[in-house]
């Protein structure tokens, strides 16, 4: 059986070239006589892998020298606690609640202090990004938190909120490396890699150095302190070594594609094909406000649950898989991350056109 077009929100498609290279190196990584899975994380070979991965990520994102790059574990969800434990010095923070992931982070932060929801789009099932140009951010808030791309609902912040001078923390799990970013506008950028970069098990945290200190909330475990990992260059304990190795390959692949500006162009092209079709379709409709549409996650519905289910079934049989929408939105969702080729989206739209012809009464 050949490879399918996998529209999963995560774990998601990886570039075939990367998988092929990893397969070629599986039994004997560059003459070491072993797989990267089997080697010491303290050895020279792995040291080169992790250092190169970090440098390539720094090159891709133009990360300023006063930011640390950490390769951690625990999923993006663990950051929901790590962020307040390390940054909530005044025990107060502002959260912008634009979806389930932002809401989970907000709820978790409430365990550690006063987490104020300064804006929310829950009134309309998170189908838009609220106006964040003049929010009631408490003067003594330690940071302002956003989920920049809302994986489940398919919205994205097109402009960052006005934080009124406060530090900005962003969960970019589902838009990591999808377009250029100005890292200096953030205090912390983090994301689980399984959406747009690599295999589940690695979380990348890019954090401004002055935020890393021993001054954390009382009782914060050693493993949950940024300082622990920053001081040890992400090698305090055994890191998710194989996952980091694959991330490193994806970084090299991205560089070869022309970097993040080229990825943005590629992603805009794919998204336009799909959104243009949704805008002219008589059967399928997008579910979010056009101005806030994500380039990465595209939810859509027919308005008829049985028809949605039929679509998902028939698409799967045609090699277009994992199109079922999140249970909280229903319908379909096409996640079209960096590794999804343009042909995948063209095939999807051709299939949708055909389905529309056959099913529109
Ligand atoms: C998937 C996702 C998460 C949760 O990631 P885990 O690694 O499973 O904890 C958090 N935030 C966003 C935006 C996501 O897309």
Mean pLDDT, nearest integer? 97
**Largest sheet geometry:** 7 strands, mixed
Secondary structural class: alpha/beta
Rounded to an integer, what's the Rg over CA atoms? 21 Å
Care to count the β-strands?
14
- As a percent range, the share of strand residues is 15-25%
- Residue windows where pLDDT falls under 50 for at least 5 positions: none
Order of helices and strands: EHHEHEHEEEEEEEHHHEEHEEH
Helical element count? 9
Q: For the largest beta sheet, what order do the strands appear in spatially?
A: 2-10-9-8-5-3-4
Distance between the termini: 35 Å
Q: Name every ligand kind in the structure.
A: pyridoxal-5'-phosphate
Oligomer: single chain
**Helix share bin:** 25-40%
**How would the global form be characterised?**
globular
Describe the secondary structure blueprint for this structure:
Layout: E1 5-6, H1 16-24, H2 44-61, E2 67-72, H3 75-87, E3 92-97, H4 100-109, E4 114-120, E5 144-147, E6 149-150, E7 155-156, E8 168-171, E9 188-192, E10 203-208, H5 226-231, H6 241-257, H7 259-280, E11 285-286, E12 297-301, H8 305-317, E13 320-321, E14 332-335, H9 342-359
Parallel strand pairs: 1-13, 3-4, 3-5, 5-8, 8-9
Antiparallel strand pairs: 2-10, 6-7, 9-10, 11-12, 12-14
Helix pairs in contact: 1-6, 2-6, 3-4, 6-7, 7-9
């Amino acid at each position: 059986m050949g490879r399918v077009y996998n529209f999963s929100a995560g774990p998601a498609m990886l570039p075939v070239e990367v998988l092929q290279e990893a397969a070629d190196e599986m039994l004997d990584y560059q003459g070491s006589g072993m797989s990267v899975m089997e080697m010491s994380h303290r050895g020279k070979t792995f040291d080169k892998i992790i250092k190169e991965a970090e440098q390539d990520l720094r090159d891709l994102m133009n990360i300023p020298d006063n930011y640390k790059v950490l390769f951690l574990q625990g999923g993006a969800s663990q950051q929901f606690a790590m962020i307040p434990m390390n940054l909530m010095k005044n025990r107060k923070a502002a959260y912008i609640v634009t979806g389930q992931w932002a809401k989970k982070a907000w709820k978790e932060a409430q365990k550690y202090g006063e987490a104020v929801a300064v804006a929310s789009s829950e009134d309309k099932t998170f189908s838009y990004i609220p106006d964040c140009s003049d929010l009631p951010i408490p003067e003594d808030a330690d940071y302002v938190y956003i989920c920049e791309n809302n994986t489940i609902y398919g919205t994205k912040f097109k402009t960052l909120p006005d934080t009124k001078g406060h530090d900005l923390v962003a969960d970019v799990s589902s838009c990591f490396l999808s377009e250029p970013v100005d890292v200096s506008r953030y205090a912390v950028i983090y994301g689980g890699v399984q959406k747009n970069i690599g295999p589940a098990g690695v979380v990348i945290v890019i954090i401004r150095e002055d935020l890393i200190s021993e001054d954390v909330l009382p009782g914060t475990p050693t493993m949950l302190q940024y300082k622990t990992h920053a001081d040890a260059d992400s090698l305090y304990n055994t890191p998710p070594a194989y996952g980091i190795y694959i991330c490193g390959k994806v970084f090299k692949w991205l560089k070869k594609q022309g970097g993040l500006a080229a990825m943005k162009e590629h992603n805009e092209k794919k998204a336009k094909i799909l959104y243009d079709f949704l805008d002219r379709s008589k059967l399928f409709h997008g579910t979010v406000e056009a101005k806030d549409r994500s380039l990465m996650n595209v939810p859509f519905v027919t308005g008829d649950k049985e028809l949605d289910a039929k679509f998902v079934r028939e698409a799967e049989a045609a090699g277009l898989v994992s199109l079922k929408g999140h249970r909280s939105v229903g319908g379909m969702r096409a996640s079209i991350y960096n590794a999804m080729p343009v042909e995948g989206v063209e095939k999807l739209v051709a299939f949708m056109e055909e389905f529309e012809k056959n099913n529109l009464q």
